[in-house]
Design a protein that fits this description.
The protein is built from 23 helices and three strands. With about 450 residues, the protein is mainly α. Strand 1 and strand 2 (about 355) form a beta hairpin. Bound molecules: zinc ion (2 copies).
């Protein structure tokens, strides 16, 4: 097919679907690679059973093994059976690409997982750009593959020999880390996972993009607001210059990404950033972390609106409709955050048990400008008892689910009414209810000695 025009080539060549001809292994060799590419497990099995040497058949130009072709075409059953026939997972094609790289490139998560289970090496470099499978996943924006590779790297010998942090920040032939590629290609989901895994937000490339580009330069060039927002929240510096002395703002202007330029304009308001991301966030449980991240992004979106209001650019609205707007009127007084009296308590400090809203937690833990010298050294303290915050967890209540406000509000007010009634009835009974009732106007303080702490809080006001 494809341009062969019926002309017979030696051994009978064939296109394998990735634009190359298959090498001369006779009719059977051709048949095997075609069967693999098209997902005919039975034919492939029959051919391999009768001619076991076909296992080492490769395509003519790119020298793809059957494993490469199965990985690129998401043929998970055939891939499994090839591995089962003890075909090593790290076969190389002409460009030193492994089957894992091709699976990550095409987003074939099942194949990625299978190859990783079979012990595929995540630390192989191709000879085209000097890239690893992690680069491939980030560049092509396959976040599930990216996550699978990172998880594997954490438990594989790579972590021991190279160190996980070094792997996350691994550079290609032009000095680009996976984070640089994700930023350039507008892959905000991959960008988030990489930052969360310890990718360095301010690393500069050697020659990729403009020499000396940071991920923020590349996101400015790519024009992705989501990537820019994420990078800024992780402390990317708007004033860092590339090798030609340009700040990201200038690149956004040059490529006519107006809204991005407004956010990158060093004279516009600083976004909120995580204080010492790698340290502090690792101490959060995943739920609390997700809640705080959401609050941080919401706060920054609010700032963006104000920034963009002053400029000629407006944000596309659909992606910003998921803001958390708590309907405070429906919530009982006792659930309100007693720092701002506006939001519902959603975060609990451990071990003291004090509660506040996500926004106030952020205000407490975030700085407008990261100060690497101090931020890492002073963990935030509880505003109620001044004890060092070692853990933040999500408050356990059945009544506020931000994703489905309409459905739960009825339950919520019902629940709080009945619990208030219960509290009044039990006034002389349970001591914990008594304590709460005495400070009910201050909100729910929880914890062991809520009465005393509430008094202190009032004194400090
Ligand atoms: Zn609050
Ligand atoms: Zn406390």
């Amino acid at each position: 097919m494809m341009g062969d025009g019926g002309k017979k080539r030696r051994g009978g060549s064939h296109c394998d679907g990735m634009g190359q001809r298959l090498s001369c292994g006779g009719e059977q060799g051709q048949g095997l690679l075609t069967a693999v590419q098209q997902g005919h497990l039975q034919i492939a099995t029959a051919l391999l059973d009768s001619h076991p040497s076909l296992l080492h058949q490769t395509s003519l130009y790119h020298r793809h093994s059957p494993l490469h072709i199965a990985a690129a075409n998401a043929r998970i059953q055939i891939l499994s059976s090839l591995l089962h026939r003890s075909l090593p997972p790290d076969l190389l094609n002409r460009h030193n690409q492994t089957p894992l790289m091709l699976a990550a490139m095409h987003g074939n998560i099942a194949c990625v997982q299978k190859l990783l289970q079979a012990g595929a090496n995540v630390l192989m470099f191709d000879t085209i750009y000097g890239r690893t499978c992690l680069h491939y996943a980030a560049y092509h924006g396959h976040s599930s593959c990216l996550q699978a590779i990172l998880s594997a790297a954490q438990s594989s010998p790579v972590a021991a020999s190279w160190g996980f942090a070094r792997f996350v920040n691994i550079r290609d032939g032009k000095g680009a880390t996976p984070l640089h590629l994700a930023a350039r290609r507008r892959r905000s989901e991959c960008l988030h996972i990489l930052l969360d895994s310890g990718a360095l937000v301010s690393a500069s490339t050697a020659t990729y993009g403009s020499p000396g580009s940071t991920p923020l330069h590349l996101a400015a060039q790519g024009g992705s607001l989501d990537c820019i927002r994420e990078l800024l929240a992780w402390g990317a510096d708007r004033l860092q210059r590339d090798a030609s002395g340009r700040i990201p703002y200038m690149l956004a202007l040059k490529h006519k990404h107006g809204a991005c330029a407004s956010l990158l304009d060093p004279t516009s308001a600083e976004p909120l950033v995580w204080p010492s991301p790698l340290k502090f966030i690792s101490e959060l449980n995943p739920e609390a972390k997700a809640l705080l991240e959401q609050a941080l992004m919401d706060a920054n979106r609010q700032r963006e609106k104000n920034i963009l209001k002053g400029s000629a650019h407006s944000l596309p609205s659909p992606s910003h409709s998921n803001e958390v707007v708590e309907d405070v009127s429906e919530v009982s007084e006792s659930e309100l955050c007693c720092i701002c009296f506006e939001q519902v308590c959603s975060i609990e400090v451990q071990n003291c048990g004090h509660q506040m809203c996500a926004q106030c937690t952020l205000a407490l833990c975030c700085h407008n400008k990261p100060n690497p010298a101090t931020a890492c050294l002073t963990p935030p303290v509880c505003p109620f008892c001044r004890s060092t915050i070692t853990r933040l967890v999500v408050v356990k209540t059945e009544c506020h689910d931000e994703t489905d406000q309409d459905g739960v509000d009825i339950n919520c007010s019902k629940l709080s009414k009945s619990s208030r009634k219960l509290r009044n009835l039990n006034d002389s009974g349970s001591s914990s209810f008594k304590g709460l009732a005495s400070v009910s106007s201050l909100g729910k303080l929880g914890g062991r000695s809520s009465g005393r702490i509430a008094a202190e809080w009032v004194d400090k006001q």
